Q: What sequence folds into this?
């Protein structure tokens, strides 16, 4: 997948949505926020990330120290500010090299890691906006499936004292879209080695099936399992526990 192109495209899709919407629209999936605040958060987030990469930081950057971190008042200028932020991330990675080690909230990682992370940050927050405006999120199945993979990976790496899956249990997710192959299946296990996941097809205590987009919406808690038209098989409490105890 071309994550660079996806980042630019997802950013533009959010900006196009914002241009024609009421900026005061409440965002139910981000309680207390309006669409304008969400727009600023995403736009500044790209600049925050680009600055971390460009400066090869090994420590986090205070969001208040992000250069040009506020959108202009004029709508056209604000849209240009928003779209250019995504390009700044790509340019920063090109400048330092994709393998250069930089700070991330999951420890030092190659700078290129941030491009994929920002893609899925854009996707989920565009979902926030689309849902708030009464629309339906449309994503390529491959992109949505990778979003599920990335989200599971982040949850597994978090290593919380109260893990989202009890020891000895297995949770299986299955995307119903055609053509995804193994990348449309996820098996999460908790064994003596801790939490792990793979694209293997393994029967577990619970299984969840739906389109990749709807699985992404549900696993990021942007839609309930019912609203996302997911089928839950086996012990639904295993799936509910995962949702209630994942850290993001």
A:
């Amino acid at each position: 997948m071309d994550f660079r192109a996806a980042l630019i495209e997802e950013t533009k899709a959010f900006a196009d949505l914002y241009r024609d919407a009421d900026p005061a629209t409440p965002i139910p999936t981000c309680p207390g926020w309006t669409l304008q605040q969400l727009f600023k958060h995403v736009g500044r987030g790209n600049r925050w990330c680009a600055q971390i990469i460009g400066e090869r930081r090994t420590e986090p950057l205070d969001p208040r120290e992000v250069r040009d971190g506020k959108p202009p008042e004029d709508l056209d200028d604000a849209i240009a500010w928003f779209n250019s932020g995504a390009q700044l991330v790509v340019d920063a990675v090109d400048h330092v090299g994709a393998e250069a080690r930089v700070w991330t909230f999951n420890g030092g990682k190659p700078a290129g890691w941030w491009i994929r992370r920002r893609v899925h940050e854009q996707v989920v927050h565009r979902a926030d906006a689309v849902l708030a405006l009464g629309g339906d999120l449309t994503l390529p199945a491959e992109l949505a499936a990778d979003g599920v993979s990335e989200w599971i990976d982040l949850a597994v790496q978090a290593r919380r004292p109260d893990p989202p899956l009890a020891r000895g249990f297995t949770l299986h997710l299955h995307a119903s879209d055609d053509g995804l192959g193994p990348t449309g299946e996820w098996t999460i296990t908790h064994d003596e080695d801790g939490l792990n996941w793979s694209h293997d097809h393994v029967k577990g205590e619970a299984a969840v099936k739906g389109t990749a987009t709807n699985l992404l919406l549900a696993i990021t808690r942007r839609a309930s399992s019912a609203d996302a038209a997911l089928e839950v098989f086996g012990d639904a409490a295993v799936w509910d526990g995962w949702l209630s105890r994942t850290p993001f």
Observations:
- Helices lie at 3-19, 35-54, 75-96, 113-132, 141-158, 212-219, 236-245.
- The mean pLDDT is 96.
- Residues 75-96 form the longest helix (22 residues).
- Residues 84 and 91 are 10 Å apart (CA to CA).
